[in-house]
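INFO batch 0412 | record 1 of 1 | parsing
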Amino acid sequence: MKDNHTPELKPCPFCGHTPIIDSYGTDGLIVRCQCGASVGHRRSGSTLTKAWNTRPESDLLGQCLDALTEIVEVGEASIRAGFDMCTRDAIQMTKIAKAILAKRKEGK
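INFO prediction complete | emitting tokens
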């Protein structure tokens, strides 16, 4: 159902799978994901895609990303300072936080 003017759909924000555009009713369209998430009832594929791809960040998500950034900064500072105590945990925590932040950045 996708036309040449319809932008690419982002992966599902809930499960990460690739959604599809499908017909809805007699003249509507809907974006569906296998997890059950959907946006629909639009006649224009580009309007529908824009609605699906809109991902407003909540205040909580922003706070979590800020906390991860701080974890990376503190962890890297601890590692550079050579703290023997908890260095292995700091390294692991920093790697995890950096990976989460990198994935988030790729999604934008």
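INFO post-check: Residues 1-5 have pLDDT under 50 and may be disordered.
INFO record closed
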